[in-house]
Amino acid sequence: MSAQAALLSLRSFNLFSGWPEVASMTKDEFDDYLAARGLFWKNCPCPNCHEPRRITHEISESGEPIRFKFECNKRKCKASRLFVKVGLLKDTFFEGLHCDRKKRFLFSFLYVTSSMKVEEMARNVEVDPNTCVQWGQWIRDVMAENFNNPTIQIGGVGTIVQIDETNIVKRKHNVGRMASSSWRTSEN
User: Fold this and answer.
1) How far apart are CA 156 and CA 165, in angstroms?
2) What are the φ and ψ backbone dihedral angles of 60, each rounded to 5 degrees?
3) Mean predicted lDDT score pLDDT of the chain
4) Residue 90: what pLDDT?
5) Any residues with CB less than 8 A from the CB of 187 and at least 6 apart, and which?
6) How many other CB atoms are found less than 10 A from the CB of residue 41?
7) CA 162 to chain centre
8) What pLDDT shows up at residue 180?
9) H-type alpha helices, 10-158
10) What is the pLDDT of residues 153-163, one digit of tens each?
């Protein structure tokens, strides 16, 4: 399944057919479900050796694994001072999350698709109403960021695009502070 098809499969998700299946999943099964839809990393290549990193974790006092991360254990990668350890949730929708991923997934679905009041959503997701307000603000920020920074495609199918870059710098007697620079691009 392509990444686009996987994301489009989320459009058919609803509370009556999709949620009972998701609610019965274990944490690992739910993570695989999210990874299959492109919302979660399956693997993360090392920036130095470009090979997939292993998933490592710490053990809590109760004996459960916590703080999952991708880690490259090769000696040359550790010596290179590049980021050999990266959090499992880094650059995902769930980064900075301090609760169950299923609850956050359910809340985001309810927030986007329904017109429930905050108290109703809090009762359905089983969290405090103040938490729902914070999550709602976070989702609004994510959506606003996406709408304010639309991607612009240059060219199109069968069109060859050549881009020239020029850095224009104005120096005043080559002395003093940093020169202000301006990048200009042009299409041919």
Assistant:
1) 20
2) -80, 175
3) 74
4) 72
5) 154, 161, 162, 163
6) 19
7) 31
8) 59
9) 19-23, 27-36, 75-79, 101-113, 118-125, 129-148
10) 777 777 777 77
